[in-house]
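U., I forgot to send this yesterday:
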Amino acid sequence: MKTVYLSLGSNLKDRARNIASAIEALGAHGVRVTRESSLYETEPVDARGGWFLNCVVEAETDLMPRQLMRALLAIERSLGRERHAPADSQVPREPRTIDMDILLFGSSVVQAPDLEIPHPRMVERRFVLVPFAEIAPGVRHPVLQQTIAELLALVPDSSQVRRIPRAGAQVGASG
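Result:
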């Protein structure tokens, strides 16, 4: 089993439900989620539409990297995601019901036209690094050899990332 880290985001319809549905669907595709970050409301970066909800999950899988990517794309399609512009396009991306990315796949490095691991822009994005640092601050980037916490401390992105209290939690309550 490989330990993988995935980023999930949504800025259409019921954003929290979209993320919960995507996490639930991972199990049916051979991906066992072992940890989930809080949800974070985040300012859109390189995307059109309203604010996102984002999170990062740690999971285990026997799938190979391309198989995992195919599973994520199938889950996205099943939840109504329509992809219009190529991922590397300079055009701002359309709003989306769900967006799922592979951040890390164990310590593997994959450089292919259709898949790059570690995710090539993860170190530039607070909306990825903040939830990632919540669940795995000491995990090392396999190329840069810095921890997620170190990468977060260095990120130049100043976009807003706000933790959303869990359902049922009282804001400001102690204990």
